[in-house]
Amino acid sequence: MSFENKNYLIAGAASAIGTHLLTSLAAERANIYAISRKAGDNWPSGVKYIEADLTKNIDELASFLPQQLHGLIYCAGSINLKPFSRLSDDDFINDYQINTLGAIRITRQALPLLKASGNASVVYISSVAAKTGMPYHTSVSAAKGALEGFALALAAETAGQHIRVNVVAPSLTNTPLAANLLSTDEKKEASAKRHPLGRYGQPQDISSAIEFLLSDNAGWITGQVIAVDGGMGNIKTF
Question: Domain residues for 35?
Answer without folding.
Answer: 7-228
